[in-house]
Amino acid sequence: MKRKFGMADKLGYMFGDFGNDFAFILSSMFLLKFYTDVMGVSAVVVGTMMMAARLLDAFTDVTMGQIADRSRGNKKGKFAPWLLRMCGPVAVSSFLMYASWFAEMPMTFKIIWMFFTYLLWGSVFYTAINIPYGSMASAISAEPKDRTALSNWRTIGATLAATVIGVVLPLVVYYTDENGNAVLSGTRMSIAAFWCSVGSVICYLLCYFMVTERVKAETTKQKFSFMGLIGSLIQNRALIGIVVSALLLLLSQLSLSNMGAYIYPNYFGDVKGLSLASLIGTAVTLVLSAFTVRLAERVGKREMSAAGSIIGAAALIAVYFVHTKNVYVWLIFYGISYIGLAMFNLVCWAMITDVIDDTQVRTGQRQDGTIYAVYSFARKLGQAASSGLVGVLLSVIGYNTATAYDEKVVNGIYTITCIVPAAGFVLLALSLWFLYPLGKTKVEENARILKERRDRSGM
């Protein structure tokens, strides 16, 4: 008899995303900066690499989803064993991306190393651990309320990882040069990446031992057809809606995150602002997390997320016109904009389980791993789109190590930091309202239908 759903599951699932984001948020906040400022690689080249990697992810993510759906599992369940298998490889590959000891190597070597390690981490090992981890949520509990709680705690885990990385690392990995400018240290960055990798392994193991899979997922036996899969996904409006929304969320969130490494040291001349921004983001998320489950039950996950997106867009558009030189004024508007990120982030993982349920209601088939894989790919695409777009725009405004503190360049940095995520927020709200169909009433109806089916089958 398996124990009832409870705090151990919530905390364990939280640690899982803590482990994920020791690598994911580290790369989102520092990888572009590391390669442009430490390794001397063009921002366009780095952005192009990140976009190119997503082409490979279109296959590796879906393939991993199919592997997860078809795996037999063991006494720990169908998805949890993958955390144990892959926690070491994903940690090592993440560390190798920050190889500052190669800074003096020829540019061709550095670019090849950058491509190799980024693909090894993001397209292979991170995929192999993240997709089973995300799919596991629907196997922990069948109740929508429990899944919203898991989504809530997952976001808390990501927020804690972001706090550790965003608050502590800027105080450690930067130093002040003879001109008074904040400069990223390659050696310190490599050491920080090592300890983040150690932390990720510990968190994955805590998740593995604390979480219990309760909902039995049947092993997929149908012959796999990639084109057939694509055809069925294209007809799935709920999946298309959440995929587009996830892409736009990551575009907004990671544009803010990526540009944080530029706007605080270069525009404001205050690296501490990067740490304060992370603390503010953590505070906003933790405060909202106390109300998320009840608010989602009352108004619906889609509805609250769309409203938050409008708030985020309004704050960033306002601070663009204010064009402040005061880092504390900027941080006030940043905190307001973070409401938009937090409201969707806290429930987005529950929304993907809603999509899995909706697909099962319509087709009679449950494809946890495959659907989560498509969603994961969209998030990676959003990450790459933000890094690629930021890389191109930094090149357009003339950013390089020689012009990094020129007035024209730093004003361009300010504009990018405001406008790109604001546009993403507006499009996100439109996607949730007009494309994603699973409002509060539909989600409750699907949960009722599936419960009746399980009761009839005795599962």
TrEMBL record:
Give any Pfam family that matches: MFS_2
The record's section on InterPro entries has: MFS_2, MFS_trans_sf, Na/Gal_symport
Residue intervals passing through the bilayer: 79-99, 111-133, 153-172, 192-212, 224-251, 271-293, 305-322, 328-352, 381-401, 413-436
* Domain of life assignment: Bacteria
User: By its UniProt entry, which CDD domains does this protein fall under?
Assistant: MFS_MelB_like
Q: Keywords in alphabetical order, please.
A: Membrane, Transmembrane, Transmembrane helix
Q: Does the keyword Membrane apply?
A: yes
Write the protein's name: Glycoside-pentoside-hexuronide (GPH):cation symporter
Source organism of the structure:
Lachnospira intestinalis
Lineage start: Bacteria, Bacillati, Bacillota, Clostridia, Lachnospirales
